[in-house]
Amino acid sequence: RKASEELGYEILTVTAIQAGEELYNSYNQCNICDEYWDWFGTPYMFLQFGFVEPIPQRWLFDFARVKFDLEWKDGDEESGEVEVNFLVPPSKKGMDLLQEELTRIKSFAELHRNKSYEEYEGISEYEWNSLWEYYDALHDAMSYALESDAALTDSVWSLSDDWWVKDGSTVAADEEEHFVYPTKSENEKGPNDEL
Q1: 3-class SS at 55?
Q2: Which of 44, 70, 37, 57 is nearest to 168 (CA)?
Q3: pTM of the predicted model as reported, rounded to 2 decimal places
Q4: Residues 170 and 120 sit within 8 Å (Cβ to Cβ)
Q5: What is the end-to-end Cα distance of the chain in Å, rounded?
Q6: Are 57 and 46 contacting, i.e. CB atoms less than 8 angstroms apart?
Q7: Per-residue pLDDT tens digits for 63-117
Q8: Are the CB atoms for 69 and 77 separated by under 8 Å?
């Protein structure tokens, strides 16, 4: 076959792979993911690629300055136990804001969940089901965070707009590229406030 007729793609690994060994591909937690590691979590996977990733998941709620990973306890998916690993210490204010958002999305679900996609113009059954799959993941993530026994501190609110960055490789000034907007004062309007 000519190279132009070949299909597929090539994957390079950092370790030897045994015959029959299962391979995993990550969109955001890999050796060459650069700044994706910090901000490209479950919401942006859904936005950019149209699917809800299974656990492990990363959640970044800029409005509440809350950032955490969801992982299977002790790496054991079969246990069904999920643990929350906060990547920035949560605050009471942030958790209160998450609770408000959880209440808001629950009321949205009460209005729309039992309806059919056919009641909404321009949405397919697949899109409708995908939206509810994302809703379930979002609902569960906020619930797990709120139910956690993490110590609360207000220190996150004294940090700069780069509060969510792990290693300083990405800054909030790159907002158009990264979809994470600098925290605004109560009197300022953010880019999504008109929505």
Answers
A1: coil
A2: 37
A3: 0.73
A4: no
A5: 51
A6: no
A7: 898 999 999 999 888 889 999 999 888 999 999 999 999 999 999 999 999 999 9
A8: no
